[in-house]
Q: What sequence folds into this?
C-alpha cells in the first residue's frame, strides 16, 4: 500500500513538472502584461492562434506572452514615446516588454492596523477579479495552440491570486505589531522560508512572486504608507538594522539640539550593530551631508529640523 502511494505521488509530481516550470516563468511577467494578453486571447482567438503558429521553435510560455503582447503595442516612429500604465512601480520586470513606460503603483492589499489584534485586510480588485479568459470557451479543433495557451493562463491566474491572498493573510498575522504604528523595529522575524513552509511552497517560488508587489498599510492612528511587499520578509540582520536606524535618527535629533554633528564613526559606535561603512552608505543614500557640513549648517541656523536616515 505504501509503495503504491509513493508511486502515485511520484507520478503526480512528474505530471505536474511542466506546470511548475510554466508557473516559474510566468512569475516574471508583469500583471498588466498578463492581463492585456488574456484580454486579447479572449477577444480574438484566431489572431492569437496565428501569432502562436508563427513561432518556429518551441518556446517557454513567457516568451509566448511576450510575443503576443508586442503585437498589441501600437506602432510608433519613436518606440521610446510609447506610454501606458503598468501595475508596478519598478521598470526592471518590464524590460523587453514596453520601453518608455509611465508607471503607477497599484498595491495588492490595504492593511489597517488594529490595537493588539490582527490587522484588517482589504484586497484590491485586481486580486479578486478573474481574468476575462476564464469565461471564454475556445474551440480546440480550430485553435489548438490558443486553447492550450488559454488553459495555462487560467491555471496560473487562479494559482497566483490564491497564493498571494493566502500569503498576505499570513503576513498580516506575522507582522501584526508593525501594522499598529508602522515602526520597523516592531517587525517580527518572518522569512520566505517561514512562509513557504506554511503554504507548502518553495522559498524560491515566493522570492520570485513578491519583489515587484506593493501594499498599503494604515496605522491605528491613521497614518498611511505604501511598502514593497518584500519588506515584510525580515531576518535577524534586517531587524538589527532597523533598530540601529532608529538609534541613528535619535542621534541626528540630538546633534541638531547640541549644534555639533557626530562623525560616521561616532554614529556607528553609539548605534551598536552597524559598521562605519554602512552608516556612510545609508547617510549618502539619504542625502545627508558630512559631519562638518552638518555642523556648519546647525551653527548658522540654516538647518532647523533633524536629518532623517531613510
A:
Amino acid at each position: 500500500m505504501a509503495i503504491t502511494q509513493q508511486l502515485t505521488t511520484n507520478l503526480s509530481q512528474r505530471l505536474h513538472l511542466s506546470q511548475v516550470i510554466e508557473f516559474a516563468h510566468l512569475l516574471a511577467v508583469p500583471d498588466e502584461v498578463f492581463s492585456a494578453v488574456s484580454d486579447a486571447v479572449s477577444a480574438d482567438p484566431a489572431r492569437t492562434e496565428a501569432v502562436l503558429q508563427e513561432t518556429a521553435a518551441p518556446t517557454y510560455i513567457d516568451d509566448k506572452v511576450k510575443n503576443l503582447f508586442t503585437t498589441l503595442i501600437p506602432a510608433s516612429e519613436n518606440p521610446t514615446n510609447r506610454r501606458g500604465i503598468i501595475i508596478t512601480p519598478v521598470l526592471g520586470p518590464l524590460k523587453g516588454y514596453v520601453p518608455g513606460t509611465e508607471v503607477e503603483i497599484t498595491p495588492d492589499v490595504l492593511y489597517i492596523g488594529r490595537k493588539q489584534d490582527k490587522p484588517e485586510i482589504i484586497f484590491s480588485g485586481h486580486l479578486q477579479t478573474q481574468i476575462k479568459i476564464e469565461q471564454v470557451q475556445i474551440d480546440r479543433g480550430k485553435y489548438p495552440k490558443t486553447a492550450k495557451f488559454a488553459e495555462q493562463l487560467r491555471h496560473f491566474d487562479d494559482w497566483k491570486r490564491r497564493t498571494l491572498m493566502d500569503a498576505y493573510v499570513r503576513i498580516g498575522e506575522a507582522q501584526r505589531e508593525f501594522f499598529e504604528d508602522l515602526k520597523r523595529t516592531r517587525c517580527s522575524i518572518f522569512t520566505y522560508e517561514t512562509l513557504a513552509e506554511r503554504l507548502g511552497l518553495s522559498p524560491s517560488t515566493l522570492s520570485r512572486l513578491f519583489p515587484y508587489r506593493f501594499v498599503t498599510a494604515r496605522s491605528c492612528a491613521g497614518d498611511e504608507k505604501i511598502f514593497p511587499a518584500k519588506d515584510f520578509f525580515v531576518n535577524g540582520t534586517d531587524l538589527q538594522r532597523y533598530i540601529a536606524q532608529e538609534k541613528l535618527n535619535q542621534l541626528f535629533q540630538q546633534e541638531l539640539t547640541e549644534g555639533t554633528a557626530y562623525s560616521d564613526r561616532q554614529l556607528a559606535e553609539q548605534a551598536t550593530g552597524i559598521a562605519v561603512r554602512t552608516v556612510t552608505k545609508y547617510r549618502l543614500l539619504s542625502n545627508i551631508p558630512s559631519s562638518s557640513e552638518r555642523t556648519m549648517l546647525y551653527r548658522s541656523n540654516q538647518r532647523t529640523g533633524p536629518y532623517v536616515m531613510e
In short: The chain has two domains: 2-209, 236-299. The CA atoms of residues 3 and 258 lie 75 Å apart. The first strand starts at residue 85 and ends at 87.
